[in-house]
Design brief:
The chain is an alpha+beta fold. The chain contains seven helices and ten strands. α1 packs across α3.
């Protein structure tokens, strides 16, 4: 199982073995995995090697340590690191997605968005996104009427990205700001929770390949269920 002559570090092999057992259901969500001592004996490696493997799995949100109890398998989180629709993210992760459209109205463009969206009329869309019957995200979108022709409430139960692309646009990238948010009674209600959960808020714009702004979106995510990866690169000539 563990090849100590391999160029792949031993701790990494142990880490992948543990991940494979979790994926196969040998250790299920919320179950305690084998102890450090048992893993040392099973894989015939040092305790330090096991601790490094477990430490990385904890950092990645796959495992969690509980003092005096052991190491447990975490519930999988929704993970986003590319420009993808929420629908595609959940499909890729194997989750079951349900979308509830709370609001769908054609309104006069809010004054602060007129210069940004360059449209007199916009659709205001408010959607709850549920994954495996749990409310994970609340999205509020303002999108110009011209961007999505023949838009309907029923269509919005699917992918907004797909609707936009069907209207001839190429989604290129998004520009967002990310902040932490304290859960209040309003968010407890819409997320259907009795206890406080951590939230993150993103607010930004999504652009096409011609740098036109397609829509503005404010999204609130449960950060105990959702991970947003941000990759920041240093481009030559920008930072000195």
């Amino acid at each position: 199982m563990i090849d100590k002559n391999s160029p792949i570090p031993v701790y990494y092999q142990v880490k992948e073995e543990i991940k494979e057992k979790i994926s196969k259901g040998i250790w299920k969500v919320n179950e305690c995995i084998a102890s450090e001592r048992e893993l040392v004996e099973q894989y015939e490696v040092s305790r330090m090697t096991v601790r490094q493997a477990l430490g990385e799995l904890v950092q990645e949100g796959i495992l969690v340590r509980e003092k005096g109890k052991g190491t447990f398998v975490c519930e999988p989180k929704v993970k986003q690191k590319d420009v993808m629709s929420f629908t595609d993210i959940i499909k890729k992760s194997g989750g079951e997605l349900e979308t509830e459209v709370l609001e769908f109205d054609l309104i006069d463009t809010p004054e602060e968005l007129i210069d940004v969206l360059k449209s007199k009329k916009v659709y205001r869309i408010n959607r709850m996104r549920k994954v495996n019957n749990e409310c994970i995200a609340n999205e509020i979108v303002h999108i110009p009427e011209k961007t999505c022709k023949n838009l309907s409430k029923e269509k919005l139960k699917g992918s907004l990205f797909k609707i936009i692309e069907e209207n001839g646009y190429v989604i290129d990238h998004s520009e967002s700001e990310i902040t932490a948010l304290i859960m209040d009674d309003y968010y407890k209600k819409i997320f259907n929770l009795s206890e406080v959960a951590p939230l993150i808020r993103t607010y930004g714009k999504t652009l096409d390949d011609k740098k036109n702004i397609l829509f503005i979106e404010e999204s609130i995510y449960r950060s105990d269920k959702y991970i947003l990866e941000v990759n920041i690169s240093r481009r030559e000539g920008i930072l000195k």
